[in-house]
Structure formats: C-alpha cells, structure tokens
Amino acid sequence: MTYALDHVMMRVEDLEESLDWYQTHLEYEEKGRWEADTFTNVYLGPEDAGEDAAVLELTYNHDDRTYEMGDAWGHIAVRVEDVFDAYEELMDAGVADYRDPESCGGSYAFVKDPDGHEVELVERDHGARWSLDHTMMRVEDADEAIGFWTRKFEYEHTGRWESDTFANYFLKPQDAGEEAMAVELTYNYDGRTYDMGDAWGHVCVRVDDLHEAWDELVVRGAEAYRDPESCDDMFAFTKDPDGHEIELLNPTDAPGE
C-alpha cells in the first residue's frame, strides 16, 4: 500500500458560487461529480495536473445548512511560479485582500474562498500551476501526530520548519511523485487546543484494495471509525489522534467516477 493523498474535502454553502470562484481564479476544471439525494460532491483540479496530483472535493448539502470553520484545519496550499505575480493577479480579478506576500515575508501569501477556507499560495518549481501542494492540519501533540502518519501510513518527512512559537512538519508517502500533495502538521508550542468545526471534511488516501488497507490500518491500531461495510464497501474512514477524518478510497470503487 502506498496511501497517496487523493483529495481534500471542504463543505460549501453555495455550490455554484464556489465552483465559479475556483474555476475562474484558479482555472480549475471539473474532474468528477456525484449527485446523491441529499448532497452533491464535485471534484476539481487544474487541467494539466499529472496523475500523482490530488484534487479538491467540494461538498454541498442540499438542506441549506451553514458551517463553523473551527481552527483544527488550517488551509490548502496551491503552487505558483511567483507568489507576488499570482497574488496581484488574484487581486486584479477581484479576490479579497487577506495576507499579501510582503506580510508573509515574501515567500507565500493567503486568500480566502467564498466560504472562508484559507488558500495559501506557495512558490514551487514543479507541478501544474494552482495544483494542490499540501493540506495543513493543526495538532496538539507533534510526536503523536508524526508517529501516526509514519506508523499507520508509512509516510516520511519531506520538510520541516521550526520557529520560536510553532513548528511545521511535511509528510508524504514513501516514493511519492513530485506532484503528490503533502500533509502539513502544525504544532503550536503554547499548548492550545482546537475546535474541529464542520466546514472542513477530510483528507483522502488512495489504496489498491480497500479491505486489505482497512485490515492493515486496524492491525496498526488506527481508529475503526467507519469501516468499509458501513460505507457500502465503496470507501472507509479512520481518524488521526486529533480527530481529523481520513478517508480510504480505491478510485475504481468510487461513486460518480
């Protein structure tokens, strides 16, 4: 099992507004859609993204509910060639000013989508423009969180940044392609706790065999949150130590594909 990251899911309150934002500003195209009785899932990504790239899943519930952002999830990050040029381009297109490159030391910047999900712009010399570089999650125990990803999913460190008040740890599957999305674990040193909210849904890992992967994770001590049988043998879910949901998915079994 490689457990490569397949997508990250966010819930939105106005599907058409969100689709227009990502398709207009990040030049995303629709990669797939699943229409259920009570909700709609739409999968988006750059047209020229490679096979290792992850996609964005927008989930729209048909009952007009609203969501709480919480702070246990941080942001998604997308790749650009030049963060100043990309940020200026978004400002010229009418995206609201949030955190410009100068306020972030010149190496990254942030905007928000219509629902308030933060989108980081990061400079990369690889991957399609606007492709997903990483998803950031905040954790309360760095050692436990790193151990979870390395023990359960056999991920390895691809980068780390230690500052005076917090640390960022980046992890990917072993032998992951350059375009693959990473997990960024952010640990604040002040011992704070986090609210999960419900505006963010989950990250999803691809597996070759759903039941084999599930059995492997359970043996390794992963939480048996929603097993394959409870999900009609199409997918399954576990949780990390902080409660972030992680979906297991064999794309050949996925609905709407």
Automatic annotation (TrEMBL):
Residues 4-124, 131-251 form the VOC domain. InterPro entries: Glyas_Bleomycin-R_OHBP_Dase (IPR029068), Glyas_Fos-R_dOase_dom (IPR004360), VOC_core (IPR037523). PANTHER family: LACTOYLGLUTATHIONE LYASE (PTHR46036:SF5). This is VOC family protein. The lineage of its organism: Archaea, Methanobacteriati, Methanobacteriota, Stenosarchaea group, Halobacteria.
